[in-house]
Design a protein that fits this description.
This protein has 211 residues and is an alpha+beta fold. The chain has helices at residues 12-21, 48-60, 73-79, 124-128, 168-177, 203-210; strands at residues 2-7, 24-25, 27-28, 41-42, 62-67, 86-92, 100-103, 105-107, 112-113, 131-133, 141-146, 150-151, 155-162, 183-189, 195-200. It has one domain (2-35, 61-108, 139-210). Helices cover 25% and strands 31% of the residues. Strands 1-6-13-14-15 form a 5-stranded mixed beta sheet. Strands 3-5-11-7 form a 4-stranded antiparallel beta sheet. The protein is elongated, with a radius of gyration of 20 Å.
């Protein structure tokens, strides 16, 4: 499975940590940019214990968000600092993972819980955190849900797409930081106003120029 992570380069130390330490930071749902994250509906007679259990389950889960689409203009604008950032391509391994992969379901109504569904409480936190309003569907989001602060095992960085407005000095820095097997490509705006992917960057030439 190939997934894509849009990132700004403003905090370059964070980017260096991802590339050099080959790990991705996870966040609790309440630190995400959608105030509706984690909300759900419940029947008025729902037992408080069940609601407390769901709340605790959500608090234990941490999220790392990716997209299935590396060429989304809106995502480049919003999450990659107006095309001055990057899009990191990763591959999820088939080996046993310490995180769950959840393709976000875009819905018009929130999940409704009632006492009769108490047998599902153990899986409800993941279900709730895998749903978003339909207005977010353009993101084609896939979430990695984990109890850990970082995700590193089972995920491999395979490529980096450079935004069309990245300064040359940051392009060179990225080519030096990334492992030799990471494919780095520039992007450009095509004739039909779509993001296009260019050929592989000659990293040997970049490094020689830097020297």
């Amino acid at each position: 499975m190939k997934l894509y992570k849009y990132k700004s380069l403003k905090n370059f130390e964070h980017i260096a940590d991802i590339i050099c330490n080959k790990r991705f930071y996870t966040v609790p749902f309440y630190d995400l940019n959608d105030p509706m994250e984690g909300l759900f509906n419940y029947h008025p007679e729902t037992k408080k214990k069940y609601l407390d259990d769901i709340k605790e389950g959500k608090k234990k889960l941490r999220i790392c968000s990716f997209s299935e689409d590396p060429l989304n203009i809106l995502l480049w604008a919003h999450y990659a600092d107006g095309f001055k950032g990057i899009c990191i391509e990763v591959e999820i391994n088939d080996a046993p993972l310490d995180f769950d992969i959840k393709k976000v379901e875009y819905v018009s109504t929130r999940l409704l819980f009632h006492n009769k569904a108490s047998h599902m409480i153990s899986v409800l936190p993941e279900m709730i955190l895998s749903q978003k309003a339909k207005s977010w569907s353009v993101e084609k989001e896939v979430r990695l849900l984990s109890n850990n602060q970082y995700i590193r095992d089972g995920i491999k960085i395979t490529g980096i797409l450079l935004g069309v407005s990245i300064p040359d000095i940051l392009k060179k820095a990225l080519t030096q930081l990334a492992a030799p097997d990471v494919q780095i490509r520039e992007t450009y705006i095509g004739d039909t106003n779509k993001i296009e992917i260019g050929p592989l960057i000659n990293r040997a030439s970049q490094i020689q120029t830097q020297r």
